[in-house]
From TrEMBL:
This is NADH dehydrogenase, FAD-containing subunit. The keyword Phosphoprotein does not apply. Residues 6-282 form the FAD/NAD(P)-binding domain. One of its GO terms (molecular function) is NAD(P)H dehydrogenase (quinone) activity. Its cofactor is FAD. GO terms for biological process: aerobic electron transport chain. Belongs to the NADH dehydrogenase family. The keyword Oxidoreductase applies. Keywords: FAD, Flavoprotein, Oxidoreductase. InterPro entries: FAD/NAD-bd_sf (IPR036188), FAD/NAD-binding_dom (IPR023753), NADH-Q_oxidoreductase (IPR051169).
């Protein structure tokens, strides 16, 4: 093992946290030094952001506490520049950090830049702070007021149902260009639609928002829909850090990686989670925690093996479920093929609620166990690195 090898993990979200904790366990007593960099000391449970938006309080998990006993050094600050030739990172308020191996785990954030006015007039689930501001705004709206959720993907569905359940006096409208749940099988989708109806959510589908005004969204067909608060959940963007540094990225800024999740331009950089452009034989991985944790697990194992001079096999992953909460009292879980297309099996109601809660809580449980064990998060190896 390479003594005093410096590994820096950028981003302590789901993937970065797991990479750091697992690598620490796999390289314990070896002299490898691991540093984890993140702007906030609070670990953000993105899977639960819609709960904050609806006014619920979440547990405050502090990153230094999660790292306790691992030997990983935590540096609080945002990485503002990356020099891959000098292998150096500039961290806001914390100077520079040098690395031998870098794990790029900067995740993604809500994209409000594609539609005029979205940046100024909508709220997002980008951080506990912004979600909390939205929750506060909801408490200021009189009964009968309107909340619009833009985006009928899984995040929009979870947000709309959560808000409608906790604020039954407000009218919630979900605007979507596609039919919500279109990636699910017919039975799971039917359950989803029943839940939307039960919660009194107005569905506007086949609609594209072209502009957001102070108190209304404008649709492509010219309609204006008034709101008292608007939540934007349509799509995500990634940090420009890698592209700005000359690291090979795709046209959205995701780091292009080889079959072992190493940058195709800078192999000492490993990219994981939402920030990595990963291709399997069945297609491209889209950003989820479900795929992010396996990429982190694989990368920690790969770095440990490379430091021991061992060979590594290509990353293999397949999806196996789409877990969707429908408020606190209902949920729908669609089980899937590796390429995320539905199989016949799905869960609804109480069983689905319990399942979804296990999914949302599992990353923190995984970090705790990974201090002592090699816990696996790879359920399906249905894909082969292309
Ligand atoms: C409401 C909601 C519900 C979701 N539900 C599910 C679900 O049920 N199942 C599922 O699989 N996925 C779900 N997702 C998607 C999932 O949350 C993401 O795919 C996952 O968070 C990606 O993990 P990550 O580690 O790549 O990035 P993140 O978790 O976003 O972590 C990135 C980290 O990098 C940090 N960072 C950013 N910029 C910098 C910088 N310059 N310097 C240092 N650090 C930086 C961030 O602060 C953050 O801590 C959901 C998302 C949302 C919003």
């Amino acid at each position: 093992m390479n003594d005093h090898h410096r590994v820096v993990v950028l981003g302590a979200g789901y993937s970065g946290m797991f990479s750091a904790v697992r690598l620490a366990h796999r390289t314990r007593r070896s002299g490898v030094r691991i540093t984890l960099v993140n702007p906030s000391s609070r670990f953000v449970e993105r899977l639960r952001m819609h709960q904050i938006a609806a006014g619920q309080e979440l547990a405050d998990h502090q990153i230094p506490d999660l790292l306790d006993g691992t030997g990983v050094t935590f540096v609080q600050g945002a990485a503002t520049a990356l020099d891959p030739e000098a292998r150096r990172i500039t961290v806001d308020g914390a100077g520079t950090l040098e690395y031998d191996t870098l794990v790029y785990a900067l995740g993604s954030s809500p994209d409000t830049g594609q539609v005029p006015g979205a940046d100024t007039h909508t709220f997002t689930l980008g951080s506990p702070k912004t979600a909390g501001r939205f929750a506060e705004r909801l408490t200021e709206i009189d009964a009968g007021g309107t909340v619009i959720v833009c985006g009928g993907g899984l995040t929009g569905i979870e947000a709309a149902t959560e808000i409608a359940e906790s604020h039954p006096d407000l009218n919630v409208t979900l605007i979507s260009s596609d039919e919500p749940g279109r990636m699910m099988g017919a039975k799971a989708r039917a359950h989803l639609f029943r839940a939307l109806e039960r919660l009194g959510i107005t569905l506007v589908t086949g609609a594209r928002v072209t502009k957001v005004l102070r108190a209304a969204v404008e649709l492509a067909d010219g309609r204006l829909l008034h709101f008292d608060a608007c939540l934007w959940t349509t799509g995500v963007k990634v940090s420009p850090l890698a592209a700005d540094a000359g690291i090979a990225t795709d046209d959205r800024g995701l780091v292009l990686v080889d079959a072992t999740l190493r940058s195709v331009s800078h192999p000492e950089i490993h990219a994981v989670g939402d920030a990595a452009a990963i291709r399997m034989a069945w297609g491209r991985i889209h950003g989820t925690c479900q795929s992010g944790l396996p990429t982190a697990q694989y990368t920690a194992d790969t770095i440990a093996r490379l430091l021991r001079g061992r060979a590594v096999k290509p990353f293999r992953f397949g999806y196996f479920h789409q877990p969707v909460s429908l408020g606190r009292r209902d949920a729908v879980i669609q089980f899937t093929h590796a390429d995320d297309t539905p199989v016949r099996l799905h869960l609804t109601g109480r069983a689905a609620v319990v399942y979804k809660e296990l999914v949302s809580g599992s990353p923190l449980q995984t970090y705790r166990l990974s201090k002592h064990l090699n816990v696996t998060t790879i359920v399906s190896r249905g894909g082969r690195g292309a």
